[in-house]
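Subject: for your reference before the review

Hello V.,

The reviewers asked for a structural picture of the protein, and I figured it would be easier to keep everything in one thread rather than splitting it across files. Below is the amino acid sequence we used in the manuscript, unchanged from the supplementary table.
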Amino acid sequence: MSPPQKQPATSVRGEASEEIEVRGHIVDSLLLPKILDRILQLGGSFEILECVIGTRRVDPSRARILVRAESSVLLEEILGDLVEHGAAPVRPEDAKLVPADIAGAFPDGFHATTNQRTQVRLRGEWIAVDAQEMDCGIAVDVAAGTARCVAMTDVAVGMAIVVGHAGVRVIPEERPRAVNLFGFMNSNVSSEKPKAVSLHAVADSIRATRREGKKVLLVGGPAIIHTGSSRHLADLIRGGWIQTLFAGNALATHDIEQAFYDTSLGVSLTRGEATEHGHEHHLRAINTIRRLGGIAQAVEKGVLKSGIMYECIQKGVDVVLAGSIRDDGPLPEVITDTLKAQKAMRGALADVGFALLIATALHSIAVGNLLPAWVKVVCVDINPATVTKLSDRGTFQTIGMVTDVEPFLRSLAEELCIED
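And here is what came back from the structure prediction:
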């Protein structure tokens, strides 16, 4: 049963209105002008009833705004949009809960989540939504007093789902106060940014993440192997700088191919030229691993003795290999069911504080969609469009570095592993 609801927004002479409040660093983050602009864009009007500006950079500000619309329907649309920007009604109500009537589908009008910290109001108390992720719904366990993001495919019949924007509060990430990678740079993509400064900042962020006891996630594409960068990534894993690895069948396959044949896609990584019958090497590498039962078994039996996957087994790195329709083999560890791969990735993201996405457009975008906004993300790719697409699809915290993979990983490994 849904909790009792408050009376609808005030309506005078056909006009509907409601007071909202926004708090935080609303001026220097441009949050306040963004909210006012959205009200006008959506066809409403506003009156600023109160605005208190913090006198120091560290002081939060707050504003109370009366939002007006020509109808209650339009007002609801405007308020629903403003929730995503951190605005909340001055007189909040409990979240409206509707039991799911169909497995694998939300009730009509469900609240679609963002990657920002979110709270829902239950019995007059605001509770944090766990497992924050964009493009999900919110399931509430009324008895336990908990809420969590749930993917559409994981909805079960009877699950209490939040519907509408009422009783939902989004807390936008604040702009970093310190000057670091996520302060001095922004998400604009350019190949002309200072690479050395950027790389030092990435290394500093990885160190800080490890000091905080958080995990570093690396999402990698096969270009890491093709460009001769695998030894640098192997050094980072051996040095304990990477705790989680997401990749596809290709990265693992060509890494093992290199360990067995010193080739990647049949091209010698020593001489840089195609080898005779080299096109068969990746298939033979996959077949060898499949006959042994898996990558871990190949390491245990002394068949696989080097490379990224070898170091992952040795260091106990949490590896998720997600398959695709074009995969050869694939390797036994590759998850070929897309929904199962998503679930495995979600499970492996616990305690990840920093994500490094390297040379893989689709995998980077997919992982970006799973990450909450407070996880710092750096995307390294020779193609600026990869970073642009990642930001355009909602992972706004992404910092882009347009550069070749090999010099980046080589320099990063040199800076971090010299400390070992």
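For the response letter, the relevant points are probably these. DSSP finds 14 helices and 20 strands in the chain. The longest helix spans residues 195-211.

Happy to draft the paragraph if you're swamped.

O.
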